[in-house]
From TrEMBL:
It comes from Phaeodactylibacter luteus. CDD domains: 23S_rRNA_IVP_like (cd16377). This is Four helix bundle protein. It comes from the Bacteria.
Length: 120
C-alpha cells in the first residue's frame, strides 16, 4: 500500500486516460459534442484516480471499494467507446484497440481486488 505510481494497473490506466484525451481532441465530432466528450474523459480519469486513492487508503476494505469503482469506470469507458464508434465518432480500429486495453485494465483490477481481499 501507498506507492500507487509503481502499480502497473495505475500506469496503464493513466496512459489510457491520456489517450482518451488525445482521441477526443483529434476527432472533430467529439469536439462538437462537449457533454459526451467530457463524460468519456471523466470516466477515463476515474480509473487511475480511484486506483491511486484506493492504494493510499489505510484498510483493504477501503482500498477494495475504490478498486471496484475504478473497475466500474472501465465498463463505463468501454460502453462509451462502443457508442462513439456506432454513432460515427471513432473508427472501429481505434475503438477495438482502446476496448482491449480497458478490458486488460479491468482484468488487472479484478486481480488486485482478489489479492487485497486475501490480505488481512
Amino acid at each position: 500500500m501507498g506507492n500507487f505510481k509503481k502499480l502497473r494497473v495505475w500506469q496503464l490506466s493513466k496512459n489510457l486516460a491520456v489517450k482518451i484525451y488525445q482521441v477526443t481532441d483529434e476527432h472533430t465530432k467529439f469536439k462538437q459534442d462537449f457533454r459526451f466528450r467530457d463524460q468519456i474523459r471523466a470516466a477515463a480519469v476515474s480509473v487511475p484516480s480511484n486506483t491511486a486513492e484506493g492504494d493510499e487508503l489505510d484498510t483493504n476494505k477501503q482500498s477494495i471499494r475504490h478498486f471496484y469503482i475504478a473497475k466500474g469506470s472501465t465498463a463505463e469507458v468501454i460502453t462509451q467507446l462502443i457508442i462513439a464508434q456506432e454513432i460515427g465518432y471513432l473508427p472501429p480500429k481505434i475503438t477495438e484497440e482502446l476496448i482491449k486495453e480497458y478490458e486488460h485494465v479491468s482484468h488487472m483490477l479484478a486481480k488486485l481486488i482478489t489479492a487485497r481481499s486475501k490480505t488481512p
